[in-house]
Design brief:
The chain is of the alpha+beta class. It is 32% helix and 29% strand. Keywords: Signal.
Amino acid sequence: MWLKALILIPMLLVQIRIRCQTAQEWSAEKACLEVTRPGSFENQNDPTCGSYVFCYMSNGSSMALVFFCTENSYHDATLGACTTKKPEKCI
């Protein structure tokens, strides 16, 4: 089945590869390397805004954890918290 999909839609495959490369450019771990104190930040890999990244320091190293908002709530980067109001940029 995969083979048929690859043969029938080569342009779609190219688009998927490009999209994956773009998504891989940003990572929670890399973003947290730039943080000097603990806090929650936008998860740029989540266009639905249903999750966020929490950065913290442990033994001198920055760490990243991805947390999920409760059902029907969205992370608001301005507030740094989950809220029931869906930010405009979220899908």
